[in-house]
Amino acid sequence: MSSPTLHPTVDEVTRRIVERSAAGRAAYLARVRAAAGTGPAARTDLGCANLAHGFAAAAPTEKVALRGRTKPNLAIVTSYNDMLSAHQPFADYPPLIKRAAVRAGGLAQVAGGVPAMCDGITQGRAGMQLSLYSRDVIAMSTAIALSHDMFDGAVLLGVCDKIVPGLLMGALSFGHLPTVFVPAGPMPSGLPNSEKARVRQLHAEGKATREQLLEAEAASYHSAGTCTFYGTANSNQLLMEVMGLHLPGASFVNPGTPLREALTRAASARAVAITRQGGEPTPVGELVDEKTVVNACVALLASGGSTNHTLHLVAIARAAGIALTWEDLSDLSAVVPTLCRIYPNGQADVNHFHAAGGIAYLVHTLLKAGYLHEDVQTIVGRGLSRYTQEPVLRGDDLTWEEGPKASLDRDVLRPADDPFAPDGGVKVLHGPLGTAVVKTSAVAAEHRVVTAPALVFDDQGDFLTAFAEGRLDGRDLVAVIRYQGPAANGMPELHKLTPALGVLQDRGQQVAIVTDGRMSGASGKVPAAIHVTPEAALGGPLSRVCDGDVITVDSVGGRLTVADEAALRSRPATGRAPEGAEFAGTGRELFAAFRATVGPADAGASVFPAFDLPTPEVPVAQHA
């Protein structure tokens, strides 16, 4: 594919990221290159006792190879558990990867495991307060797994919300190692997501029983594999592919199929090939550069992906010494068209998207229109055009063929010159209440600007109680759910509020939500100004909002305002952040150090320091 002219905004955003990141990126790359050293293998410098510990449990033939210190050895880092449907398929991956590595001339060892929790299970529960922090725990767990200097490359097994970002952040701390992500794929389609959402809303209104609700949920989440709606988990998979960290076409092949197994074997062989000994050294810290990060942003926006990645992409970039900001995402969103309609932004699920042309067609049309950088490094070589190909199994032989050059279902996937919307549906809001992110791709035009009196809640449970008691009926309102930021209580996802808000909107009320918490990629049809920073627990303006303050959530003009700014500024903080005994139980007491040190949402809400990177840019005139 010839390289078209890059869109001027994509070019400009990339250039300013490069400029802004110069010192941090240089410091990061210097560390990566120093760690790479000059030896043929990481094990070269290990002492005899160290090395003996590293292969003590290996099979005799593996001991000989590890002792020789010349064959590349892959670290398998897995998020396997058999409770989560997305990660259950990984049970069988390590033996498969090991055999494939040996056939490719290498070795592989399971270096470690990382925790994998599910936001779907912990939604509305105390455990959700550990969810965002788990990303950084996963990054640290990945680093521990890779810390033994036994490895020449890494194979990372992860799918869901915090797991993939955490694995990548951890791998970037070992940026000299080539790294391949291996997905598990989505479960086959079950009950349509739109029907599941309908039953959820009926239950919120008291028109469906718990048994009916459970039946609908079980019919939707029904087998091994990723949930089929386009939330953070499937956004992760698409981003890893567009960043060149998956094999082309690997993301959305269902578990338990011959093609899925063939792709896993091929990923292992490719991981061997891109080690130094394999002849195509591709360190992950060099692969993930400014252009790769911009490509990830573009793909997220064009596909209508999860707003959680306004946190994760910033944190991933910073782990590679790159200063990505919300303004970069907002400016890209203004020009990158929406090309996908996948639930909750449409009726189709990810299996339907994959069948319609999937990532191969999405990359093709974005490259053709100049929205993606083609000249980037990937695990399969240089050039993103390799990701317009699809894997095909011919007997026992896995090959790649050019993917479709036209969408097979234009109700799900469209070309860049005939989009569903001219923008990417993510906007940054500024104003006296702080800076926030809003996703509008599933919000109807008539709901994109809401002005209404505030109803203020310091806990999501209080909002749900007010809804159940009818105190929210018959009035327009902006629900302010505060003290939910990263420093307050770990920034839990508040998706449990979505059905109730949807009921109010369907009754004809104008409603919106403003919160320093998260709503994820499934926030849906109600306008949600989320990730508000500075957060209430750190004295942000939301801490001074009172019931009745007239708030405007303007996702068209990019403003988050309050009618009486002077009154807001004159007040002391109202409400109270959780503290002390409120964090006892469900493991929350173990994360006090995280709550004390976590950074702001617009810097990725991470506990890790960055490499000489500037603080996020917020226009001075916009500060409260």
UniProtKB/TrEMBL annotation:
One of its GO terms (cellular component) is cytosol. The keyword Iron applies. It catalyses: 6-phospho-D-gluconate = 2-dehydro-3-deoxy-6-phospho-D-gluconate + H2O. Binds 1 [4Fe-4S] cluster. GO terms for molecular function: 2 iron, 2 sulfur cluster binding; 4 iron, 4 sulfur cluster binding; metal ion binding; phosphogluconate dehydratase activity. Its cofactor is [4Fe-4S] cluster. It comes from the Bacteria. InterPro entries: 6-phosphgluc_deHydtase, Dihydro-acid_dehy_C, DiOHA_6PGluconate_deHydtase_CS, ILV_EDD_C, ILV_EDD_N, IlvD/EDD_N. NCBIfam families: edd. This is Phosphogluconate dehydratase. It comes from uncultured Nocardioides sp.
